[in-house]
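Subject: for your reference before the review

Hello V.,

The reviewers asked for a structural picture of the protein, and I figured it would be easier to keep everything in one thread rather than splitting it across files. Below is the amino acid sequence we used in the manuscript, unchanged from the supplementary table.
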Amino acid sequence: MDIIPERANYDLQADNFDHRTGLLAVTCERVVAGVEALNGSDAAAHVFEVGCGTGQLGMALANTFEQYTGMDISPEMLKQFKLAYRQQTTATPSSSVPSSLAMLQADGNKVWPVADNSANIIFSSRAIHWLGVEHIVAEVWRVAAAGESILIVGRVERAADGWESLLRQHCHTLVRQNGLKPRNGERHLKRLLQYYNQAPQGPQTDERFGAQVLAPKIADRWYQKRTLQQSLDDWAGKSGLAGTEPSAKIKSNILAELKTWALEKYAGDLPTETERHYVLYGIKIFS
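And here is what came back from the structure prediction:
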């Protein structure tokens, strides 16, 4: 059986994913509080998470809402999630263990493994850019609970003029110059929001679906010290680059060019403290 590239990518990252790119516990708490606020604090809601990964946010969501279903393409990431869940259930009173929790391995670009009209909250953190916009829209309409539900997309964002953002932009330029098409999470999100902004706004009375795009909400902000070499080492340690699968030689050449470009531009290894935001984008769905 062929292994989908993004699945292979995350399977290889599973063991050290949280260490390399995980969120702080306090950030997870604040993100879930933001989800609660956007949803209207309905603890009885069913949360369906697209791309749940190792479950950092999934565990917090499952401990907050009555029902939680997490889906991920990577069985190795889900293995880490299940391990974390087992550790929690043995370390905490049974009253704090979620009453209904499911972790499902599935390809998000195919039919989502939940029933029609079953999810009050459809949530995705740093993952939805892997899915086609048209497919997301179709599946959200299908699984959204009757009446009012909400789609929430979470992203970690950096200052647009900061060196990390500019380094990523130049990386994408080099990837394109090598004949590959990099994934751009920000552009993908804009396309998704544009669709919902063009949909009928608010509840509809003629059996059409309606939507309402909410103002973005910053759930948390923090500062993190990074150097150029740390960023390059992170990218070197991952399978693929910028959402593509270049050959080992092309990837090595791109990273070398990136380092040369950045050292010339900034004249140093940039041991700087950069600000990051975790932003929630909410879209109310009326069906």
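For the response letter, the relevant points are probably these. The first helix runs from residue 5 to 13. Residues 42 and 198 are 28 Å apart (CA to CA).

Happy to draft the paragraph if you're swamped.

O.
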